[in-house]
Write a structure and sequence with these properties.
This protein has 7 helices and 9 strands, in the order βααβββαβαββαβαβα. The protein has helices spanning 12-20, 22-25, 54-65, 81-97, 119-125, 150-158, 170-173; strands at 8-10, 28-32, 42-43, 47-48, 70-74, 98-100, 106-108, 143-147, 165-166. The radius of gyration is 17 Å and the shape is globular.
Length: 178
Amino acid sequence: MQSLPTLHRISPTALSSHLLSPTCARTVAIIDVRDDDHAGGHIRSSIHVPSSTLDHRLPELVRTLKGKEKVVFHCALSQQRGPGAALRYMKERERMLGTRGEDGGVKVEQKVAKEGMSDEQRDEEGVVEMEEEEGGDNGKEQEVLVLDGGFVKWQERFGRDERLTEEYAADIWVDEGK
């Protein structure tokens, strides 16, 4: 399992290239874990999961994102909340979908659901339904990344680019003294 210092990072420029590529955009998910500091814009197509709700939403995220090749986490600076969220997501994904093999790949372990279990009970029990979804593979390797510099660096470069950033409020980000 990785630790904060060993998490892989992606630059804002590299992420923008993925998002602007029609084929790559479908394989990347962006998770924005900013809380009250979410105001002022966000990366187009990102999923806002405030860090205060992350632990509760992790099972849902693992299920929803299982077919994505890359999952990118970020907060304002990607120094604490973003990397921490990435690590917790990786741990939950490993718990729900399997254990790591000697080769580093994920070994999928099917857990049998008891008849009559609610979705909430299944989450608590760690039950994973092993149905194949179009374009998704439960045991597929997934690269979990952290956006280098967080949204602060992203908006410096791409804040005004409407193809990449939504609801951008320049007055929040632009320093009048420059």
